[in-house]
From TrEMBL:
All copies of domain Glycosyl hydrolase family 63 N-terminal, residue ranges: 49-275
Topology in membrane: Single-pass type II membrane protein
Superkingdom as given in the UniProt entry: Eukaryota
Keywords: Endoplasmic reticulum, Glycoprotein, Glycosidase, Hydrolase, Membrane, Signal, Signal-anchor, Transmembrane, Transmembrane helix
Glycosyl hydrolase family 63 C-terminal domain sequence ranges: 317-811
Family listed: Belongs to the glycosyl hydrolase 63 family.
Pfam families, A to Z: Glyco_hydro_63 (PF03200), Glyco_hydro_63N (PF16923)
Species of the source: Pseudoneurospora amorphoporcata
Cell compartment(s), UniProt: Endoplasmic reticulum membrane
One function term, GO molecular function aspect: Glc3Man9GlcNAc2 oligosaccharide glucosidase activity
Catalytic activity: N(4)-(alpha-D-Glc-(1->2)-alpha-D-Glc-(1->3)-alpha-D-Glc-(1->3)-alpha-D-Man-(1->2)-alpha-D-Man-(1->2)-alpha-D-Man-(1->3)-[alpha-D-Man-(1->2)-alpha-D-Man-(1->3)-[alpha-D-Man-(1->2)-alpha-D-Man-(1->6)]-alpha-D-Man-(1->6)]-beta-D-Man-(1->4)-beta-D-GlcNAc-(1->4)-beta-D-GlcNAc)-L-asparaginyl-[protein] + H2O = N(4)-(alpha-D-Glc-(1->3)-alpha-D-Glc-(1->3)-alpha-D-Man-(1->2)-alpha-D-Man-(1->2)-alpha-D-Man-(1->3)-[alpha-D-Man-(1->2)-alpha-D-Man-(1->3)-[alpha-D-Man-(1->2)-alpha-D-Man-(1->6)]-alpha-D-Man-(1->6)]-beta-D-Man-(1->4)-beta-D-GlcNAc-(1->4)-beta-D-GlcNAc)-L-asparaginyl-[protein] + beta-D-glucose
Coiled-coil boundaries: none
Descriptive protein name: Mannosyl-oligosaccharide glucosidase
Length: 832
């Protein structure tokens, strides 16, 4: 019997394999196209939901989009009982010591909106501003705000309050106020019609609202009329538009001068509110000042309707959106920040909502030029003894230049005092924000890394534009490309990686997520492909920053024959002076004296170790061939921390310098610096050195206080001296790091578990009570807290890293609930 031919079967097998290959090839291409579409859609929706906001945090209330040269609004108010009131009572920019009994957001979600309360005791007025976003259309949707004023108890019911909405539009486009029925002003709504390339056509309406307007039988009423709403439309050069109060006062002076010259009778003076009234001149312009005067309580709405949305907003829409936003925030806050014992009373919930809302409500969008010195003067190498004097002379000699313009989307430390981006603050700010909205946090991280230059440098303080510079003394405005700052954004990268792999989602899940209209707070971690694409894009920036640190902040080991495990891993902050090391973030914390080019800083080495550890985890997925580079650096740092910085005599880590015999010398000022290897997670839980660090933390004669960990030991000769900025006060960011690491030790088996557990429980309680008590008493969070009294001090309304108290309250109560040992995130999974 003849054997059947094998050729057809072999041909069939080849065809099957070919079909499988083509199917896989086109399937992969389709999947990649599908993934690209999803990434693009997420980016589009993310940008739209974040486009508008109260992104002018330096103002009590100011709305703008995340677009350069666009529409901006700002709210002003002040009493007008006397002829001098306007000069002293007009509120606009957030200021310290301006007669406020607290102000800020009671609830706020960046993607929806929220409610802010302002308690202006000097003006006898409580103001509530409610802000919401209404998605829809191709230009970022619409938004609306409700402004409500209520006289405080004891204030006369006929108190007169002037309220001004200051509206500007930069760039190409038009903005025109529609004329009212009365030449003296408007009885009803005020409407502005505008358009621009980025926003399309839009309408801004200021509603008539509720409230009584004062009347007068004075003879000038025939000229001035009663208290109508007036609009003055103007055209100014763009570089002056931010100077709102200056422009308002200039226009008021012109109106008042003209009125006084023609109509003022000293024997029979009219009421102040009739004198301090702008002339009604509505029309086209890039500045529109809308002024109205109320007697007693008042309320009105600001409605921005994008034509692309196809529907104009109404006050009814605003009421509904405010209610929905409030209900949504309350439910979500309780879910995201599940506050644990002993802080379960309602007062702590209200406190936590306020602290977090003011952190996230302080996010701003900044655009403008920065002052930078790129002279690269040889003195900036800081290689010679006396380098700080040579560098100071070079700074005085060199002329910095304006660079940019740049843009930055960031949270801020303090609305009245630090309304701009600070690099080392930002990583702490984003820790609670990442819990709430990881995609928002990563959007801010991306915005910061977009500022990086080709070498890997990011300016530590972002002072963009004339408005930002107006809040900073000239000597502090210039940024230097050899100055570093703690790389705290790596905290957020680590959090993102951890959550990405725990979520372990898929592309279909994200499609469903988007189609159901779920908020875009976690789209980048709901499936691993989208998250990995983000990591792939940002990894080169992280890598560049890491090697910039190694290149520019290196410490000298070889020149002084120092004995160390690694000859490469030692670091020194550049920019030191005798009293300060501003680049470290710890400003006046005691360092070796005098400064020396052979100095080594233990906090900086710890930060570089944290970067290496983080990059090794990312590289396992993004660049496996580079993992060994980072682990080698980390190994060298872990050894050199002991070899170069550990003092057995003092039982802590210390900075180092070179003595008069050219020998390595430790200089120990026990305090935050001594804790950094522990704070950054570089100490093993069974290390004998850990026991001594815990003993230092818990020693009441050294760092421990009933209110938190002091920045410097009570026994140090510099304690409480000179500026006393980082020389005793309690800082919440460092205490947060300590609480986090104490928790990690307390929940792992080891020789120091019980010690860490006790310290964790007491420190967590002390810190929360310290911040809460000052907040309850003053209405503010504070920059730092007094170690002797627990009172808040320095900058008020410091809702930056002090808001970490929300995360602290949500941490476990180890006395109440046994906690299992935490599991390290598994960064490489088989399915990858």
């Amino acid at each position: 019997m003849a054997q059947p031919s094998r050729q057809p079967r072999q041909l069939s097998l080849v065809l099957i394999l070919l079909l499988l290959f083509l199917n896989a090839l086109f399937g992969q291409a389709a999947a990649q196209e599908d993934e690209a579409i999803i990434n693009s859609e997420i980016a589009r929706l993310n940008n739209q939901s974040l486009l508008w906001g109260p992104y002018r945090p330096n103002l009590y209330f100011g709305v703008r989009p995340r677009i350069p040269k666009s529409l901006m609004t700002g709210l002003m108010w002040g009493k007008v009982e006397t002829y001098t009131d306007y000069q002293t009572s007009l509120r606009y920019t957030c200021e310290q010591n301006e007669g406020m009994k607290g102000y800020g957001w009671d609830e706020y979600d960046t993607r929806r909106g929220g409610v802010q309360s302002i308690h202006d005791t000097e003006n006898g007025l409580d103001i509530t501003t409610s802000f919401v976003k209404v998605p829809g259309g191709a230009n970022g949707g619409s938004w609306a705000a409700r402004v409500k004023g209520q006289l405080q108890q004891g204030v006369p019911a006929d108190r007169k309050t002037a309220v001004i909405l200051y509206v500007t539009q930069e760039g190409l486009g038009t903005l025109e106020a529609v004329k009212g029925d009365d030449e003296n002003g408007y009885e009803g709504h005020v409407t502005l019609n505008g358009n621009s390339a980025s926003l399309g056509d839009y309408k801004l309406v200021l509603t008539k609202g509720k409230g009584k307007h004062p009347t007068s039988d004075h003879k000038v009423t025939k000229v001035r009329g009663h208290a109508h709403t007036v609009v003055q439309s103007l055209t100014y050069q763009e570089e002056f538009l931010w100077q709102a109060k200056g422009i308002v006062f200039k226009q008021l002076k012109e109106s008042v001068d003209a009125f006084v010259e023609k109509h003022f009778d000293k024997q029979d003076p009219p009421p102040a509110w009739q004198v301090f009234q702008l002339e009604n001149r509505p029309g086209a312009g890039n500045v529109h000042i809308i002024q109205r005067v109320f007697e007693g309580d008042f309320e009105f709405d600001i409605l921005f309707s994008s034509a692309s949305a196809g529907k104009e907003l109404s006050s009814g829409d605003l009421s509904r959106e405010i209610q929905e936003a409030t209900e949504s925030f309350g439910e979500r806050f309780s879910s995201v920040f599940a506050i644990k014992a002993p802080f379960t009373a309602e007062k702590y919930n209200k406190f936590g909502r306020s602290m977090f809302s003011n952190l996230i409500g302080g996010i701003g969008y900044f655009f403008g030029e920065s002052v930078v010195d790129r002279s690269y003067a040889p003195e900036y190498e800081e290689e010679d003894e006396g380098f700080w004097e040579e560098a100071a002379a070079a700074r005085a000699r060199n002329k910095p230049t304006l660079e940019g313009p740049y843009e930055l989307f960031t949270s801020i430390p303090s609305r009245p005092f630090f309304p701009r981006g600070f690099l080392w603050d930002e990583g702490f700010h984003l820790l609670p924000i990442a819990d709430w909205d990881i995609d928002l946090a990563m959007e801010i991280v991306k915005s910061w890394y977009n500022l990086m230059d080709e070498d890997g440098w990011i300016a530590r303080e972002q002072i963009m534009g004339a408005e930002a510079r107006s809040k900073v003394p000239e000597e502090f405005q210039t940024q230097y490309p050899h100055y570093a700052n703690p790389p705290t954004l790596f905290f957020i990268i680590d959090s993102f990686i951890d959550r990405l792999y725990k979520a372990n989602g898929s592309i279909p899940a994200v499609k469903e997520h988007l189609s159901q209209g779920v908020p875009l707070s976690s789209a980048s971690i709901d499936n691993i492909e989208v998250g990995l694409e983000y990591l792939g894009r940002i990894y080169p920036f992280l890598r560049r920053q890491f090697y910039w640190f190694k290149k520019t902040q290196y410490g000298d080991i070889k020149s002084y024959d120092r004995e160390a495990y690694s000859s490469r891993e030692a670091y020194r902050w550049r920019g030191r002076t005798v009293p300060h090391c501003l680049t470290s973030g710890l400003d006046d914390y005691p360092r070796p004296q005098p400064p020396h080019p052979g100095e080594l800083h233990v906090d900086l080495m710890s930060w570089v170790g944290l970067m290496a550890k983080s990059l090794a985890n990312i590289a396992k997925v993004i660049a496996p061939e580079e993992v060994e580079d980072y682990t080698k650096v980390l190994d060298g740092i872990e050894h050199n921390l002991d070899d170069l910085h550990w003092s057995e005599k003092d039982g802590c880590y210390c900075d180092a310098t070179i003595d008069e015999f050219e020998e390595h010398q430790l200089v120990c000022h026990k305090g935050y610096i001594s804790l950094f290897p522990f704070l950054t997670g570089l100490l093993k839980p069974d290390s004998p050195k850990l026991g001594k660090i815990l003993a230092l933390i818990g020693d009441e004669e050294e760092l421990w206080s009933p209110y938190g960990i002091r920045s410097l030991s009570k026994k140090d000769e510099n304690y409480g001296s000179a500026e006393n900025y980082w020389r005793s006060p309690i800082w919440i960011n460092i205490n947060y790091l300590a609480i986090t690491q104490l928790y990690n030790v307390a929940t792992q088996e080891g020789p120091y578990q019980e010690t860490a557990r006790d310290l964790y429980q007491r420190l967590r309680k002390n810190i929360v009570e310290t911040i809460y008590n000052s907040w309850e008493e003053t209405g503010f969070a504070w920059e730092q807290y007094n170690p002797e009294t627990g009172k808040g001090q320095r900058t008020q309304h410091f809702t930056g890293w002090t808001s970490l108290v929300v995360k602290i309250m949500a941490m476990d109560d180890l006395e109440a609930v046994p906690v299992a040992a935490p599991v390290e995130p598994e960064y490489v999974k088989d399915e990858l």
